[in-house]
Each structure stands twice: as structure tokens, then as C-alpha cells.
Amino acid sequence: MQQQNDVIKPDYALIVVLLAGAFVAFLANTLLNIALPTIMEQFQISPSTVQWVTTGYMLVNGVLIPITAFLIQRFSTKKLFLAAMILFTAGTLVGGFAPSFAFLLAGRMIQASGAAIMMPLLMNVMLSRFPIEKRGQAMGVFGLVMIFAPAIGPTLSGYLIQHYDWPILFHIISPIAFLVLVVAAFKIKEKNDQMEIKIDVLSVILSTLGFGGILYGFSSAGDKGWSDLVVLLTLGVGFIALIIYIFRQFKLEKPMLDFRVYQYPMFSLSSAISITMNLALFSGMLLMPIYLQIIRGFTPLEAGVLMLPGAIVMGIMSPITGRLFDKFGAKVLTITGLSITLVSNYIFSNLTLEIPYSTLVMIFTLRMFGMSMVMMPVMTNGLNQLPSRLNPHGTAMNSTLNQVSAAIGSALLVTVMQTRSNFSAERMTEELTSNNTSAEMVQQIAILSQLEGINFAFFVSTIILGFTLLLSFFIKRAQPPLEGDPEKKVIKSL
Fold first, then answer.
1. Which residues are in the Major facilitator superfamily (MFS) profile domain (predicted)?
2. Domain-by-domain residue ranges, the chain?
3. CA spacing 20 to 30 A to 41: which of 9, 132, 328, 411?
4. CA-to-CA distance for 240 and 336, rounded, in angstroms?
5. What is the C-alpha to C-alpha distance for residues 288 and 351, in angstroms, rounded to an integer?
6. DSSP helix/strand/coil, 487
7. Most distant CA atoms of the chain, gap in Å
8. pLDDT tens figures, 111-137
9. Which phi and psi (to 5°) does residue 477 adopt?
10. pLDDT of 316-366, one tens digit each?
11. Average pLDDT of the residues of the chain
């Protein structure tokens, strides 16, 4: 194919620098999660306020990522990456020396503005610099960074928080970020690969209101409740703005985010699988720390260490999965990985107060082993069907949907857990006799009801994973359309 012949020989120096920048950005995303109780205590703020350290990061990502398709086409890789690293490094410095929570939150949001550009930029470079028969291997390395960095975040954070104050989480990242910035300035070659296109201001406004409103609404629902006026208002404004935004993109000659990527069936299927997986798999990231620290009484370090073997397995498997994808395609890998993930996730829906720590480690590691065989193969297969001109839009679309579905999954599972816990607490309280209402019994009811809520949330996520598994049977190996026939879908069946 002509399109394959036009692929530029990989610039490995460029890719290594981009991977290093993406690694610290992904690491920063989860590094503060275990430190939230310490930050809350130092600044004397409520749980709903401190949560904005992570929610604000996600919100900025969700608002800016849709614009990255335009940025990738408008500016050179070097200029865009340097701008992203400058923002990320500046935000890290502000967060590390923050005298108040307001400064800390500002630092996190500046960090996020840089990180939002990195993932779509790196994915676009991978797609444009590698021929299709080697993309699996290349995306496997990218998957190692995308999955391994945030996975080791809780373990590293737990250790550091146990021995140092929370600003150390910023101080260990800032010199690495600065080093990557300096190396990038000298090693990345400037190329005139940008296009002279103008940004549509109305699209930016609609995108911000749409994605921002939806992310804020779902992120706030877990804390404020679904009936809260602010939640309903932001969700309503978000969905209306998003609908107008989508219709406007179809009318523009040069859309900011081209929704025509959904004319390609394998990309559409990959989006559906990724969305439902994100909805389900956030159960582990949200529910396990609650179960381990609040119900079982493990330390933050012990909770973080529990996730470390799984992170190592995912790190080892990502390049292997990439090679297997090149050889066998996405279908076999996805069905196998989702089956393993579904079974291990179901086991987590039957947690008790006596399950040994070692058993939890094994189940969690098995769950992450299954995940390692799914995300990158599905995403790569979908992107493979797009013509090169749509690669920036496809990568931006994937990144945006990951953020939105993660926020929705978080709110959904927290609501499910809380609703079930409240119902269980009321039922257990009614079963008590008036002579058996000691403080110890009330505390036991609180623990048992919360455990039942966590189990039910895992069960709901297992049902969602079952639907995802059904979708995976429709995967076919995708090839990009022939040059000059951009709308023709060329699909090679497995």
C-alpha cells in the first residue's frame, strides 16, 4: 500500500524522549492518590475538597485532549512536546512548593495541561513512524509506559508518604521532568510537518463546556449525589454542548476533532470495548484501597505493595502482547484477556474479612495480567483502520473517551457501593434487638455494610465486563484504506 510506503523510518531518539516525558506524566496521575489523607490533614480540608487534586487533573485532561488533534496538525512535534514539558515541569514545581491548597490545586492543573498533550502526541508519532506490521510491537512499548507508570504510583507513593512529607512526590518528579525537557530541546529535530490551519473558537468553547461539564458532573455525583442541582445542571449543559459540538464538526472543512473516524467499524468497536472496560475496571482502582485500608486496616504502603506484582506483570507483558498482536491480531488476545479479567473481577465480588493478603495479591495480579492483553491490542487494531490523515483525530478521540468513561465509571461504582452499603446498614440495624446496640456492634455493622457495598460494586462491574467480552467476538484484523479511496474499509478477517 502507498500509505505504508510513505511511513517514515522510526526516529528512536525522538521516541525515547517522548516515552520518558509520557512516563513521568502518567506517574504523576496516580502518585498523589494515597497521599490525599495526609494533604487533607495538613490543610484542614474536607474529603470532597481534597478529591479535586485528582478530579481537577482528570478534568483538565478531558477538556484539553480534544484540542490536541488540532495542535498536532498545527505545530511541529518538537514545539508541541517542549510546550507540554514546560507546562508539566512548571506545574510540578508549583505543587511541590505550594504554601496552600489553592496553590497545590493550581500546580496539579498546570501539570495536567502539559500531560494532556503527551499521550495523543506520542501515539500519533508511533502510528506515523512505524509500518502497520510493526505497530503492535511499538504500541506494546507505549503500553508499558501507559500502564506501568500509573500502576507503580500507589506503591511508590505509599513508601514515600510513610517516610517523608507529601511534597516529596513532586520533588522526585521535577528533576526528571527538567532533564527530559533539556534533552528534548537538543535531541529532537525540528521538522516542518505542520499544517496551516486555524482553530475554530466556537468549537473550543463547545468542547470545553461539553467534555468539561460531563466530567465535572460525573466526578461530583459520587460525592454530592445524583439529585444535586449542580450535578444535574453541569451534566445537562455538558450533553447539550457536546451534541452541538459534534454537529458543528461535521460542518467544518477542517474539524477540530473529526467524528468521521466512526465511519470505520473496527475503530468504533475498539472505542466501545475501551469505554466499557474503563467503566468496569475503575472498580479496582477505587474499591480496593477502601477495602484494604478502611475495612482490613492495612497501611498505605501495604495497599500499594499489593498492586506492585500486577504492575510488574503488566510491564513485562506489554512488549510481549505487542509482538503477539503483530502475529495473531487483536481478537484472540482480547477474548483471552477479557475472560481472565472477568473471572478475577468476579472473585473480588466475594471479598470477606478473612481473605489472606497473599491471596488478594495473586487475584489482583491475575486481573492485571488479563488487562495487559486487552487495552493496547484493541486500541491499536482500531487505529490501524484509519487513514493517516485521521490518526491525530483517532488518538485524541481515544484519549478523550478514556477520561470521560473513567469519570463515569468512578461515579457509577461509588454510587452503587454507597447505595448498597446504606441499604445493608439499614437492614442489619433493623435485625438488631434493643439490647444488642453496643458501640462495637454499630461499628461492626458499618464495616460489614461497606464490605457488602464493595462486593456489589465489583459484581456490577463484572456484568459490564461480560458485555465487553461479547463485543470482543466481533473484532476483525483491520488494515488502513487504500490511498485515494479513504472511505473504503479494508478488513482482513482473522
1. 14-480
2. 2-189+256-492, 200-255
3. 411
4. 39
5. 10
6. coil
7. 82
8. 988 988 887 787 777 766 666 666 666
9. -70, 130
10. 887 788 788 888 888 899 999 999 999 999 999 898 888 999 999 999 899
11. 80
